[in-house]
Specification:
This protein is 60% helix and 0% strand. It is built from twelve helices and no strands. Helix 5 packs antiparallel against helix 6, helix 5 crosses helix 7 and helix 5 packs antiparallel against helix 11. The two termini are 47 Å apart.
Length: 318
Amino acid sequence: MDRVQDEKRHSSHDDTFNPIFPSLPNVSEDSGPRNYMDARDAPSPFLRKTADTSSDEALRQIRTANTISISPELFEKLYLTPQTKVKGDLRGTFANPTPVALIGFLLSCTPLACELMGWRGAGGNGIAYLGTYYFFGGLLMTLGGILEFVLGNTFAFVVFCSYGAYWFTEGITLTPFYGAYAAYASDATNPMEGFNSEGFHATYGFFLLFMGFLSLLYLICALRTNMVFVTIFFGLFMCFVLLTGSYWNIAIDQAAFGAKLQIASGAFAFLACLAGWWIFFAQMLASVDFPFQIPVGDISHLIRSGTERAQDKERFSA
């Protein structure tokens, strides 16, 4: 009799599974009393677990994102990419690298956005943040991108590695040792003359322009994820476009208008950073299985995937 009851109890485990927080049960109206505040023999809240879930099973539910059916919104919140099938169980073996890449981006871009807007007299095109560009923007984003590659998350891999390369490029360009702007100086003893020259601004503007184009492509792809991610790429796209205009106006002696465009670019970069901090916080809450989550505006259902369209086409043809 006890064995039959155990089998029924384990067979009903899927009905109580919570797809939003895999380590917590899905409490419904007919799932029975679960209020530990009213139970006399309730365990300590720090040791609480459901009667039909062992500790090993609970740990597996928390760690695994590939073998458990989690919601598309939660997956995109964790990995910033639409959920795709991959071989193996790497997502359950390794930690989620997405927050590492995000914090590298945020601690590089947020101070730069404030500097572009000239808050508290900041200036100098971000030269004060050289170390941040190398170790936060470049290193952490590239490392996060490589780990996304290991997990099979192509979109996040390409995004993080490309922006990580941007921060490395920005840092190297502004480092006097490499002489990037010194080549534009007429006086070899005064390399900063090249940094302020028309030639340097006119030339470097093309790199910013195509970074904006790259961000536009990412923006289109992000329409399959969530509104927060879309906001990040929209802000970066506008930032790079306006910053290109700033550099090119300075190159033609329109410094006043170029300064206004620089402030506007900083504002859009700050918008992207605000959205980035929001989704970073959302990922941190999900990573520790916090009892509440913050929304990120899932829009993956608005544009159906090519796989779903192909499956529908096969059904109709059959």
